Amino acid sequence: MGVDAGSGYTYGSVILTLTINPAIDRTMMVDKLVFEDRGYILSRTEAAGGRGINASHVIHSFGGKTLALLTSGGEVGKRMEVSLARMGFPYEAVPVAAEGRVNLTISDQQGLTAKMNERGAPLSAAEVAAVRKLVEARLKKASWLMLCGSIQPGVPPDIYADLIQIAKAGGVKTLLDTDGEALLRALETKPTVITPNQPEAERLLGRAILTRTQSLEAVARIHAMGPETVILSLGSRGALASSAEGVFEVLPPRVDALCPIGAGDAMAAAFLWALEKKKPFPDALRWAVATGTATAILPGTSFPSLDQAKAIYKNVEVRPVS
User: Fold this and answer.
1) CA 174 to CA 151: how far, in whole Å?
2) How many other C-beta atoms can be found within 10 angstroms of the C-beta atom of residue 185?
3) Any bridge partners for residue 15, and if so which?
4) Short-list 59, 69, 66, CA closest to 22
């Protein structure tokens, strides 16, 4: 199932995204988000989501080539594919028996956000094998493979590690954006880029990251665990990155954030889009943080246009860290 999917589609130098545990993202904007008092819903939206789908959305809107791979099951899966068809970028869905999940985000006009995600229903061994087979087949036309988001209960925690090794064997670079044991296992296979946010990095290292010094130490420790490049997302404080080119601090302008959900997905997507445009590493970081920041100032789970990201890009500073 999918749009423009299959061997007849010419991908070129495509950025392939995998969202093995996608969802319908239901977003509500309310006047205030408080305990023990009444709030009023101002608007409601519903769209296909998950980190890889969000990344493909951004890459496509910036004019890049992408193909989104995902699983799809039940009535939720059908609604998700209807939403994907409207987004305009090609996708392929592995049909699964279990019902898809629905995630809920509630944001208020003051910038407070609460996000509650379903874990997702287990996949069978045959369904996991079908996902691997599809990824391996589509890697032949890819320059990058983005492995994005959580995995369902029962899915082997080394699935991302396996796919990174398959991608490497085919000369395809990898970006890993996940959490927990799946992240830990995959680090051993030395992915090209990983993009943890602050809570994910804290769980990986088993320690709090509160100060700039602690952030620099965290980036150094994670880089030593195997990936070629680490981009640590620090929300409104920007990002720290460590690669063979050095360590860089990326500082965004001050903005009034409305909803930070999806900002990390947009950051990772814009980073690869910029690299595919042959932009230097520091400039790709600048585009990444600009796009993440532009996402955070939009209401609900929505993503910026290239022009919106460009407006922020002009005010993002990149500093080498000695």
Assistant:
1) 17
2) 18
3) 66, 144
4) 69
C-alpha separations of 123 from 97, 98, 307 in Å? 8, 7, 40
Q: What is the C-alpha to C-alpha distance for residues 177 and 192, in angstroms, rounded to an integer?
A: 11
Say how far apart CA 154 and CA 146 lie, in whole Å: 21
Tell me if residue 150 falls in helix, strand or coil: coil
Tens of pLDDT, residue by residue over 251-291, are: 999 998 878 889 999 999 999 999 999 999 999 999 999 99
The whole-angstrom separation of Cα 13 and Cα 66 is: 9
Amino acid identity of residue 129, one-letter, is A
Taken in order 298, 301, 305, 306, the sign of the CA dihedral is positive
Structure confidence by residue, pLDDT tens digits, 151-202: 998 899 999 999 999 999 999 999 999 999 999 999 999 999 999 999 999 9
Task: Identify the CA nearest to 21 among candidates 115, 159, 113, 138.
Answer: 159
DSSP state at residue 122: P
Domains of the chain: residue spans and CATH: 12-320 (3.40.1190.20)
Q: Which residues touch 77 (CB under 8 Å, ≥6 apart)? A: 71, 93, 95, 96, 99, 100
